[in-house]
Structure formats: C-alpha cells, structure tokens
Design a protein that fits this description.
With 94 residues, this protein is mostly helical. Helix content is 56%, strand content 4%. It has five helices and two strands, in the order αααβαβα. It has a two-stranded antiparallel sheet with strand order 1-2. It is globular, with a radius of gyration of 15 Å.
Length: 94
Amino acid sequence: LGALLLFHRPERPREFLIQALERVKAGRRAEGEYPELMDEANVEAMFALLDVLGQGHITPAQYREALKTLGLSDEGLEVGEDENVTLDVFKEGV
C-alpha cells in the first residue's frame, strides 16, 4: 500500500487507500481479478531477499512465511517439506 501511495501520489491519500482496500475486498468476494499491489520486479526482489545464497530456490517454510507476511493464504499449497520452491513457483503463489 505504501508503494501505491508513492507511485500515484494522490491528493487525498486516506481515501485512495480506502478505495484500494475496497477493490481488494470486492475481488475476494467476487473471486475476480485483484488489483495489482506488487509488480513482477517486487516479487523477484522479495524472492532474492529470501534466497540469500543465490541458489535459485527457497525452502517451503520460507515460502509459507512470505505468503503469511503478505497476508496470503497457504491453504492448498502443494509443496512438500522436502521440495525446493523456485522463483516461478513463488511468482504463482504471490
């Protein structure tokens, strides 16, 4: 939300944020398209922060924690505890 404020620089930030959150809420109810809160570069940067050794993958625990931090559900994840999560899988989940 902070990034949206910096990018759009609305005259009335409070109302802008309320509208953004209402669009997210409406999208959840209608199971429609969510407004884009993070672009691909943001997702890649987040993955890079988690993949500190640059191995090209993170652990399922890191993946779940990232989803939790973003307020996303990890229900129905099909990632086993012994599997690695690649950037492509991370992008799909986020």
